[in-house]
């Protein structure tokens, strides 16, 4: 799911791309991640600060633990409030600016009251525009002397709220016909576009058809994942869970691992409840000491809101209840230990990124 940020005055996005280095046994993948953060409220500034922290941690963890990746951060929207290129470069990234080729359609959609929240999610739409933004990525890498050492046939795209725990290489990772994605809330299902492995030529062949389908639907999608899922359906490949692991699943100890998780967790994705909300909820649950089953649904929602959790801007209360119950599930799995570990890791990488 996209990250819900309801205010309309937004910094429309940032994305990171990691290119695969040409080499005998390893290639540098490209990774991209996207965010949008509102600026017109105290909550908006807090969201922006939180996502800047995620981006800093993602870049630093990639530099330290994923040497086969070249990080490229793709930016869209006004410069005010988003990390400047120098800030990105200090943390091992390469900044590229891109304006969405279909921006007028999203702008028109955002003027409809039912889709006003769309503008705050423009950053996530960058991955849809991959064929149009890659020339700018190639040009930037060429100017930095990195293009000759990089192949752009495949792209690994992530949301910004991730940590790299181990290297990601092309070896042993099948190239999809179009794209591959990992699970959302459940294991082993191709549902979540927070981490996407693109076959650039395969995806590009379908790009015009994808835009035509979006136009036929008047671009009335809650977010880009809705469009991509609807258009590609069963043509989407499945990534290993290890490339899109969720903290609410708990530590991937041998006894807990599903049979198909044969490799260490490589990318930890803070999908759904963000660290600040989840850890606040878990702290209150531990202090309360009741079993999670003893909490009534309204009590769960109340603690979620008290910890800064917010409803989806499209009014989808079902998604809010999903977020709430994911955190309670984390409590059942490991008392929230992986959330605590993740918060410590993010703080460490943020501090390291300032060095």
Can you count the helices? 11
Please tell me the total number of domains. 1
Describe the biggest sheet? 9 strands, mixed
Low-confidence stretches: 1-12, 20-45, 254-261
Q: Distance N terminus to C terminus?
A: 33 Å
Helix content: 25-40%
Which oligomeric form is depicted?
Answer: single chain
Share in β-strands: 15-25%
Class derived from helix and strand content: alpha/beta
Mean pLDDT: 82
Estimate the global geometry from the Cα principal axes.
globular
Rounded Rg: 19 Å
Note down, in words, how this protein is organized:
The chain is an alpha/beta fold and 355 residues long. It contains eleven helices and eleven strands. Strands 1, 2, 3, 4, 5, 6, 8, 9 and 10 form a nine-stranded mixed β-sheet that branches. Strands 7-11 form a two-stranded antiparallel ribbon. α1 (42-65) packs across α11 (337-354), α8 (275-288) crosses α11 (337-354) and α9 (297-306) packs across α10.
What topology does this entry show?
Layout lengths: L9 E12 L7 E3 L3 E4 L3 H24 L3 E8 L8 H6 L3 E4 L5 H8 L19 H14 L6 E9 L3 E3 L14 E4 L9 E8 H6 L1 H10 L7 H9 L4 E2 L28 E3 L5 H14 L8 H10 L10 H18 L2 H18 L1
Parallel strand pairs: 2-4, 4-5, 8-10
Antiparallel strand pairs: 1-3, 1-4, 1-6, 6-9, 7-11, 8-9
Helix pairs in contact: 1-11, 8-10, 8-11, 9-10
Question: Tags for this entry?
Answer:
globular; 9-stranded mixed sheet; 11 strands; 355 residues; 11 helices; two-stranded antiparallel sheet; alpha/beta
């Amino acid at each position: 799911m996209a990250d819900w940020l309801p205010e309309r005055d937004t910094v429309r996005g940032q994305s990171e791309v990691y290119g695969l280095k040409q080499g005998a046994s390893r290639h540098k993948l490209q990774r991209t991640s996207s965010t949008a953060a509102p600026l017109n409220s105290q909550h908006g500034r807090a969201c922006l600060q939180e996502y800047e922290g995620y981006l800093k941690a993602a870049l630093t963890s990639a530099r330290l633990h994923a040497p086969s990746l070249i990080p490229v951060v793709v930016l869209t929207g006004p410069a005010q409030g988003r990390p400047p290129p120098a800030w990105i470069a200090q943390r091992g990234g390469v900044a590229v600016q891109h304006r969405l080729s279909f921006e007028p359609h999203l702008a028109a959609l955002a003027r409809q009251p039912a889709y006003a929240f769309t503008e705050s999610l423009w950053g996530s739409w960058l991955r849809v525009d991959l064929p149009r933004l890659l020339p700018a990525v190639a040009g930037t890498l060429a100017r930095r002397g990195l293009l000759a050492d990089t192949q752009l046939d495949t792209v690994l795209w992530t949301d910004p709220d991730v940590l790299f725990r181990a290297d990601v290489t092309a070896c042993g990772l099948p190239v999809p016909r179009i794209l591959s994605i990992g699970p959302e809330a459940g294991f082993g299902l191709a549902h979540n576009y927070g981490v996407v492995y693109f076959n650039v030529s395969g995806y590009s062949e379908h790009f015009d058809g994808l835009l035509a389908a979006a136009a036929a639907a008047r671009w009335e999608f809650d977010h880009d994942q809705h469009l991509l899922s609807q258009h590609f359906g069963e043509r989407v490949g499945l990534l290993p869970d290890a490339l899109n692991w969720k903290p609410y699943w708990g530590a991937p100890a041998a006894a807990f691992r599903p049979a198909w998780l044969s490799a260490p967790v490589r990318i930890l994705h803070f999908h759904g409840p963000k660290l600040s909300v989840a850890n606040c909820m878990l702290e209150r649950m531990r202090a309360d000491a009741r079993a999670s089953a003893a909490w009534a649904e309204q009590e769960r929602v109340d603690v979620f809101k008290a910890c800064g959790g917010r409803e989806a801007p499209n009014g989808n209360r079902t998604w809010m209840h999903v977020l709430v119950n994911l955190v309670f599930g984390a409590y059942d799995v490991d008392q929230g230990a992986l959330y605590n570990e993740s918060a410590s890791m993010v703080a460490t990488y943020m501090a390291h990124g300032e060095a």
